[in-house]
Amino acid sequence: MHKQIEGSRAVAEAVALCRPEVICAYPISPQTHIVEGLGELVKGGELTRCEFINVESEFAAMSVAIGASAAGARSYTATASQGLLFMVEAIYNASGLGLPIVMTVANRAIGAPINIWNDHSDSMSQRDCGWIQLFAESNQEALDLHIQAFKLGEELSMPVMVCMDGFILTHAYERVDMPAQAEVDAFLPAYEPRQVLDPADPVSIGAMVGPEAFMEVRYLAHAKQTMALERIPQIAAEFEQRFGRKSGGLVRTYRCEDAETIVVALGSVLGTLKDTVDELRNDGHRIGVLGIQSFRPFPLAAVRAALQGAKRVVVLEKSFSVGLGGVVSTDVRVALSGLHLHGYTVVAGLGGRAITKDSLARTLHEAMADKLQPLTFMDLDWRIVNRQLEREAATRRSGPIAENLLRDVGTVASKVH
Amino acid sequence: MLQVRFHGRGGQGVVTAAEMLSIAAFEQGRHAMAFPSFGSERTGAPVVAFCRIDDREIRLREPILAPDVLIIQDPTLLHQVDVFQGLKPDGYVLINSTRSFDELGVGDIVRKFRHERLTNVPATEIAIKHLGRPVANAVLLGGFAALSGLITLDAVSHAIRDKFSGKVADGNVAAAAEAYEYIRNELLELSHA
To answer: What is the model's pTM?
Structure first.
């Protein structure tokens, strides 16, 4: 059924259709409307056989999810930004123990400086934690990915993060096609745990493992992610067959046929990027887009296959490894090992900076002329950066950076964005 | 693609207005995307919200920089925020005020645009009359339906009932209808003048 609803609401309804049995959340910012919506559905009796647990912190949220999942319950939570960081110890436990929890990360920046807006710093900080990480391009894909995530995670007994851009997707009202309960039931079987804490058949979960087997347990986590590389496209194909639309999978190409330049990105910026590429194509430029839907496992072979015919690759990312450069681009480079391609990293949209079509077009024109810096910070305000550097060179007690820059920028209230 | 930008202040339901417009467009079978200018919400702080409407799927997610329509819910913003930034030459402007554009001090600015597409409506007064509260967001959507003909009053009423229920919905629907009539009369007078 088509609906015009907020992204967070769409995800809440989709999660409810998956019949979760335990939902736990710490109900304060940076929490989203998603768990608020789920709380309403549980309280209103629309989502039955589900316990909604308000916990005292994000650390507790993940800990409760671990306990619930180990007891055989389909478990769900959501978080973002600093909330994700606060659960990190438990996040590694969830994956290390092989518990198929599904969690939405409504991507936001990480402070300091304090910032509540969107970028991918939060989930990128957890790329090595052993969870599967799927990225949504639109609210339709976000809701579809949650349905796929439960199936994927439970089959492989691994936790899955569904990453969707905070605010840009979570707070956007757009049209979504919400599946019927019977359709979701037919796609997603009841949860059959591989391991379960059952008093009738007692086991312990979470043994201490020394040097004799630790590497093997870790390797098995990697082996499972490798299996996920096969299952993700299969599940996306099953989903398409049942629901009639493409969602998820490993990667998706857009106008890459005969493309000399391919821009790689993930998340909601793919929409603006496709519109930009359409205009560049109209002007005769051979340019395309590669969207990455599965960031962990990282689809090395699929990325290589999509990019190997191009002359240059631009990785556009909302994340940044301080002291190195791109996060996504480092992985893309591994996929392109041995190929001779011009590679550019464009860091954009950090902390909610709007990514506009004009700026993208300007940056991509520079890339196509091979005039772009290998590492470019799109729309960086060099004026305030240089002023701060001068201040620091001139005086020892130059003061706090964030406060200095805000003073230099002056009021921003008069701007539209 | 039709791009609508809303200006108001925190607490006035500006974001809800954009969302309701998207629901109204959806009701008419169109694609629509509404989103706020993201920020920590503070009562009284300038707020911007956006709505795009098209006949095909909307992928663009940048803020609306060159609007076709401006809906200004709080006229005290006119001299504080560059609300007219990027407005297209044939764009529509609807201001919530009892006062004319000249009286509001923006006469010189708006003379660059098509006068039959610019109007004010006393939306706050209409809201108080029907709702007992100065919440002008849905009222302005009724006005916009009359000013532009780009959305029907029926669809606006439907969107109001999607968001609200009971007396609040009834009051808003009645207020939106009054704003619709008000602006239709204004436009009739203008065309006879």
So the answer is: 0.96
